[in-house]
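Methods: example folding runs. The two proteins below were folded one after another, and each record is reproduced exactly as written to the output file, sequence line first and structure-token line second.
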Amino acid sequence: MALGYGADPRMAGLLDFILSKQVQSGKWAMECHYTEKTWGNYGKLGQVNKWVSLLALRALKALTRDPSPVL
């Protein structure tokens, strides 16, 4: 991923895990709140959430990026 650990074998199941959380519409739903750690309201539990979807898509992009340099 961003820190260069995308090829780490311990990350192998992460791609499947993220994809397993994707809902029918192709987005991701909020599964938990961190009310003690944030000041804002980021949506309702169980509903599709743009912020969760953004983070999931960014993680998928980083996991599927080819780390080899283009020559």
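Second run, written to the same file directly after the first:
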Amino acid sequence: MPDGREFIVEFIPKGGLIGELEVLRKQPLSLEYRALSVCELHFFDGRLLREFCANNPQFQVKILSKALARVSELELRLISNAGSNLRQRLARTLLRLSAVYRTDAQNGGDELIISQHDLAATLPASREKVNQCLRRLREGKVVDGAQGKIRILNRKALEAYAEGDA
């Protein structure tokens, strides 16, 4: 953002595609993309992607369907977040990230690898407020965590917080 704050719009899962709409529209990327972990990137020549889309209607439908689904999900998240408090937004974000990036922890919970800074930029909120909210969730034994990791201990309670029922 112009004032120096960062806002994370989305985490792209393994095998994800970014910038396809800009390539098809011949526009520069409107967002900055940054890897939070070691990853492998594949770059495609925009001209070749546009030609492949023009000559392959099934591919065109698939790529546009994925892009429209992503836009729709972002719209729903924006509307949902507008009327939610920080605890609800945090709970929803943790559940969303666990669904996409789930790794089974040894105790059977869901473990997410994300810094408080990045989590705050996703919500958006200050890191300090996110830390306070996470501390309350830890005290309630809903989540646990260490530096850069959050483990979901009680998914049902987290779902209740996400819905505003708790």
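Comment on the second run: The chain has a mean pLDDT of 82.
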